[in-house]
């Protein structure tokens, strides 16, 4: 393989890595006051490989609970090397289901000539409330859980329904990755990002074989383009949800 071919292959491999918006709380279920002091982390990354992309300050980040949305104004910028990510703190004061979300500034991926906008959420249950975890929160695209999205064991099946502009998104690719904080190695590149497709109702299912955080990213082309340097580019709009599995202690 000549040097030019090597660079082409390397570029294709880099572009093929799945991008994921990340919204991760310090606790996915709340049972006491110490756990109720949540730290929410917002990133843009390749979860299994552990590679970070720069995250500009989100256009909007907040929490949806009891039918109301609260927008955060206290995001704090952090650094991982040269790459920015954000954190915020949030104290849960009463029982409820809390949907934390982020709508990021679209990220331009030159290798794919596309803007990426991954609207991301995760769902936390406080004090066994267990009501409203399947409620849409009005995002342009989102995954509505059909499986309760917390209190899950490794090996459980997670099922969801993808909505785009409030309607089921059929035949949509859903990319799935494990947030690899343990330095695990995949047997090959095809094992890093799992894929399923939604059915005619926009539904999908996947069994999660490891304990930890799993990201599900349902990808569609948005109905709006973004202009950059005098040229219009398509927007990959992703509905992303993160769920945590645990093992018996």
Question: Your description of this structure?
Answer:
With 249 residues, this protein is mostly beta strands. The protein has one domain (20-246). The protein is built from 1 helix and 22 strands. The model is unreliable at 1-15 (pLDDT under 50). Pfam families: DUF4198. It comes from Campylobacter porcelli. InterPro entries: DUF4198 (IPR019613).
Task: Give a quick set of tags describing it.
single chain; 249 residues; mainly beta; eleven-stranded mixed beta sheet; five-stranded antiparallel beta sheet; 1 helix; 22 strands
Mean pLDDT: 94
* Structure summary, number of beta strands: 22
| Largest β-sheet summary | 11 strands, mixed
Helix content: under 10%
Number of helices: 1
Gross geometry = globular
Keywords: Signal
Protein name: Co/Ni ABC transporter CbiKLMQO, periplasmic substrate-binding protein CbiK
Pfam families: DUF4198
Signal peptide: 1-20
């Amino acid at each position: 393989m000549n040097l030019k071919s090597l660079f082409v292959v390397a570029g294709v491999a880099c572009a093929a890595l799945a991008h994921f918006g990340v919204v991760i709380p310090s606790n996915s279920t709340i049972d006491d006051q110490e756990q109720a002091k949540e730290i929410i982390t917002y990133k843009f990354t390749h979860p299994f490989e552990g590679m970070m992309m720069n995250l500009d300050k989100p256009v909007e980040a907040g929490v949806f609970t009891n039918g109301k949305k609260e927008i955060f104004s206290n995001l704090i910028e952090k650094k991982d090397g040269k790459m920015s990510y954000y954190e915020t703190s949030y104290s849960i004061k009463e029982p409820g289901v809390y949907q934390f979300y982020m709508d990021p500034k679209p990220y331009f991926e030159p290798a794919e000539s596309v803007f990426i906008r991954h609207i991301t959420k995760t769902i936390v249950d406080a004090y066994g409330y267990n009501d409203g975890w399947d409620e849409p929160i009005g995002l342009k695209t989102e995954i509505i859980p059909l499986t309760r999205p917390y209190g899950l064991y490794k090996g459980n099946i997670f099922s969801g329904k993808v909505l785009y502009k409030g309607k089921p998104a059929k035949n949509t690719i859903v990319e799935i990755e494990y947030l690899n904080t343990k330095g695990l190695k995949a047997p090959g590149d095809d094992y890093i990002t799992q894929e399923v497709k939604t059915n005619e109702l926009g539904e999908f299912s996947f069994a999660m074989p490891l304990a930890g955080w799993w990201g599900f990213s349902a990808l569609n082309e948005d109905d709006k383009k973004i202009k950059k340097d005098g040229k219009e580019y398509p927007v990959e709009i992703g509905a992303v949800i993160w769920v945590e599995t645990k093992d018996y202690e």
